[in-house]
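Summary for the lay section of the report: proteins are chains of building blocks that fold into shapes. Here we show the chain for Sec-independent protein translocase protein TatA and then a coded description of the shape we predicted for it.
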Amino acid sequence: MGSMSIWHWAIVAVVALLLFGGRGKLSGLMGDAAKGIKAFKDGLKDEDVKKDEAKPETAKTVTDKDAA
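The coded shape description reads as follows.
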């Protein structure tokens, strides 16, 4: 159990190739995650702007001329 056999190294090599091999699958996944986070933050900013634009008007007091 203490020493690594050829099968252990083969499994480690396959996992490393899957993660880092090809056209940068891991970096592509991280890039997609970063884009998702950026889109989420932009959505929150847009929501804050919409809330600021939709502030209710201040209440106005209207008196009835005929009620006096």
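Put simply, here is one thing we learned. Residues 24-53 form one domain.
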